[in-house]
């Protein structure tokens, strides 16, 4: 399956799942909880307030070497949007990609997504857990804070 077929398929539009494709074109679905949605909204709002010079994108699709992955939240600079617009899926990752961990996600799956987003050009990948934990990754590995994240952790985990 190609990503355009997923996006255009009326049977897949209203599913309560996050949909991705693996490198073989097979659908991967993860159920989303209300807490997942709350974290997604809180992150999007906090990013919008802290970094209004860019664009916040929820459910941001990125073509990777392992198929189309969908970041729960992403932040793209004005320069990124000028270059790539709103192409679906992006062939390069926006500067920031965020994954909110669901109970159905394994550590190996999340670690793989971090690597895939960084390989596609993301400057940072945040992994957010529902137990008030947020991990930040750059090409250097895991870091404690970043210019993008300053103050956001406190806003989303109130």
Automatic annotation (TrEMBL):
Q: Which UniProt keywords apply?
A: Endonuclease, Hydrolase, Nuclease
**Nuclease listed as a keyword:** yes
- Can you give the residue ranges of the Putative restriction endonuclease domain? 18-133
User: Which domain of life, per UniProt?
Assistant: Bacteria
Q: Name the SUPFAM superfamilies for this protein.
A: Restriction endonuclease-like
Molecular function GO labels: endonuclease activity
Q: What name has this protein been given in UniProt?
A: Uma2 family endonuclease
Species the sequence originates in: Leucothrix arctica
